Amino acid sequence: MNRSLLFVSVLVIATCGLVYELIASTLASYLLGDSVTQFSTVIGVYLFAMGVGSWLSRFVERGLAQRFVEVELAVALVGGGCAPLLFASFTFTDAFRVVLYGSVLVVGTLVGLEIPLLLRILKDQVRFKELVSQVLTFDYLGALAASLLFPLLLVPRLGLVRTSLLFGLLNAAVGLWSTWLLAPVLPAVERLRVKAVVVVAVLLVGFGYADRMTAWSEEGVYPDEVVFARSSPYQRIVMTRGARGFSLFLNGNLQFTSVDEYRYHEALVHPAFLRAGSVRRVLVLGGGDGLAVREALRYPEVERVTLVDLDAAITSLATGYVELAELNGDSLKDARVEVRNEDALRFLAEDTGLYDVVLVDFPDPNNFSLGKLYTTRFYGLLKKRLAPDGVAVIQSTSPLFARRSYWCVDTTLKAAGFWTEPYHALVPSFGEWGFILAAHTERPHVRELPQGLRFLSRELLPTLTLFPADMSPLPAEVNRLNNQVLVHYYEEEWRRWN
Amino acid sequence: MATVELSLTRRELIASVLGAAVAQSACKDTQPRSPVPGAIVDRAVHAGHALREGSLPLHTGPFRSVDVAIVGAGVAGLSAAWRLAAAGVQDVVVCELEAHEGGTARGGRNHVGAFPWGAHYLPTPLHDTGPVMRLLHELGAVEGVDARGRPHFAEHVLISEPEERLFFKGAWYEGLYLRAGASAEDLAQLARFESRMAAFAAARDARGRKAFAVPVAHSSDDGEWTALDLLTMAQWMAQAGFTSRRLQWLVDYACRDDFGTTPESTSAWAGVWYFAARQEGAGGRAEGYLSWPEGNARLVAQLARSVTPRQWLRSTLVHTLEPMDGGCRVHAVDTATGAPVGLMARQVVFCGPRFVAARVLAPWRKAPPAWLSAFTYAPWVVANLTVSAPPQGRGFPLAWDNVLHESRSLGYVVAGHQEERQARNGTCVLTWYYPFADTDPRAGRTRMLSAGYEEWEALVMADLLRPHPELAHTAERLEVMRWGHAMVRPTPGLLWGEARRAAQASVGAVHFAHTDLGGIALFEEANHFGVRAAESALADLGRKVESWL
């Protein structure tokens, strides 16, 4: 029996063991947020499970070598499969935590069995003093290797799914290799080798499909760390945190980044307020993050803000998620604000009130459900709710990246009988972004900008309505419920940039 | 819970009804599944058959006197009632066999929302004239009329995009014509076919009538085009060199969808009419289709507003019409109590199909009219499946009409598509349509009625599980309606032959209205003949009215 090769095995399995633990912790904090809690609980459960494994090792009486190989193969399968399994359980089931701690327990127990079994296999061939010293040395060396490789090389280069499968393969390789190393003390070598080959094959197939599995999961979709994720009946809500502050994504589409959202929301809100005859009654459609409402509340004349956002999950995030509530200045808790979780089209069709300012802040029209909210039907209903001297503003995607889409919104507003004024602003997280003012007739400026703005100024305003040649008007069809041309334009135009 | 296993006979049933492709994938699906709970909901079959046996006793009197008795409260009967109400005739009785009006344009409702049981859309009329436009104005579906007299419809009643998608070999594609993988020759034939149809649409006769118009009665009777009625659509396609399989599929689908027939059994005039009647030609086209969650039941409800509660005689089977001097005796039974009902009507508007008219009208019972055998009717099955989540599938997203290329069914419509609510992961109702187009109608009827709920459940689910395996878990309830004589079949010779013309003639005080008099089972035909029969009755009552037609 080649002892030094066995010690290399110890190094490998120790590395694998720690990698699984890191994968589970990272994945949990990636998907659930609150990384301190996730790392702490996962590591605690894992170490406890290793203790359980060590204790259980006493019940293994005979066939130590065979049991060792089998444990290796089991670790390979469960540990190697843990990242895809956890991602899948997060995406497709409601039992993510059960699967998380269950798999941590299983992997930890199996890893806990490894070293005691190995020590007992080797105890007759190596003096105890040497044995303990060597095995534990390699064990801790492996841990060091894992903790350095994981953040520096594995996660950035391979991602979690591939890392998990790769270390499963290493574990399986140790199992297979051990059938030679331990051949003298193994009874049924052939059968064990077959099992090992099957495990290797399963993991290799998994490795081949790793891209597809990653696409299912959200790994790789977001540039920063995920700190909040939830599926509402309408959409997938994800918040991430990175160097540029935190960001909100709906169905994978960026809604704002805290570092420059003020540019977007000041540009969205204030030009409409400057021109509205009165600003007592404000209607916000979409914009459940409360950031547009924050801007609206800068005007002391505002008496009532009605926020209509379909998704209660977003509006409760805006009040309940501390950093977002800080960012929106707790706007949705203001006594003047009423939050209604309803479909905006329904609301407009059934509501009877008139509004002085209407802020329309929907996600971009990237599917037919959203496309409905940019049709003449929608704008026709909107027009009925707009006070005679009222002003509405529509976030209208990027006039640079989706030029025809942007001008399609303008054409559609005009077809619905609105006077319009298109304008744009640079929001670095998004790029050049477009808005369109809409009113019954042309409206002059009747109000001053509020104090404390960081982006807009009286001098800047006229420049926003200048469109360079690459964003200038394009002819477009009118977007109607029964043609939904905007969704087609949008899809075609954004495809070119992605 | 019992599980569904595919016996050999069930496979044969699926193959014979839906085609080999559906049966094959149903067999591949080895996972036993729980059957979807539900029921067959048609009920009037027995009452109708009592009529055939002629065993119902004549009423002996006294007879309630009425100005006009309308027999049948489908679209034709209600259109007649609507026309009479507009003329101020109040002494009217509307007899309907079923407990609810609507006939094949009936709708239903459950905890999810409304859904159709039959006809479920109306192509937009080209001009702001005629009774259908009058009805659409009443309904508030028209927003305005342009300088050329073309109506503009309210956006929310026009069918929203995405309108249609097609399932082929595992993925969904936009539209009804399978463009994916089409050869240059396929596309050239499609373009040539479309330009032929545009030419037919633009064609006018010497009197300025459109060659192919809605309703059929407004079409030109010039032999240049009516000669097409002697050919089948399949023969015309062959003569014109339309050999592309994709184009042939489209035409086959069109025939099954609008007529319940195949191109081999459809008049070429009717086949061309499908493509040419809805457009002006030379660029002008209709705005699209109007639809509501409950389908044409919305139009039925609007028409039915003209019938007062006192005018209704629901659950009433009219079995004998006895024309006599001064009017017509109407003999009926209350199907709930079996009690006889008798009316002495100055005028009768009979709104059932020809084969029922031949059994009900006393003189025809003894000597059936010569034209009777010219009228044949396709059986249809309509099923409403409530599901806990909207079906999706690979490719183009869920549309209003979702068609399965490799199946003989017509696919399904999402009943709530027109609801103005953002799609969410909630329950919805899918309305599945199947015409017995491939068999002789009588054989189809026998097969349809001999299959009970279990067989229909197996058929509907075999068809829908192919594109949507998740329905095994999300299907909540299935209801099946079997229509024995759903649609008149525009077979060669029916539209421009002698039979249809002869069948339109009134017999004494009895006037007739039904889609079969138009030869095409569409709302516009039923409405046209209902209004026409009411106007004939009005004339016979001595009322002078200006025609709406």
Biggest sheet: strand arrangement of chain A = 7-6-5-8-9-11-10
What ranges of chain B have pLDDT less than 50 throughout 5 or more consecutive residues?
1-5
Number of beta-strand segments of chain A: 11
The protein's oligomeric status is: heterodimer
Q: Per the principal axes of the C-alpha atoms, what is the gross shape of chain B?
A: globular
Predict the CATH topology of the largest domain in chain A.
Rossmann fold
Give the overall shape of chain A.
elongated
> Largest interface, and how many residues on either side?
A-B, 23 and 18 residues
CATH class of the largest domain in chain A: Alpha Beta
Number of helices of chain B: 18
Q: What's the short story on this structure?
A:
Chain A has 18 helices and 11 strands. Chain A is α/β, with parallel strands linked by helices. In chain A, a hairpin with a 2-residue loop joins strand 2 (236-242) and strand 3.
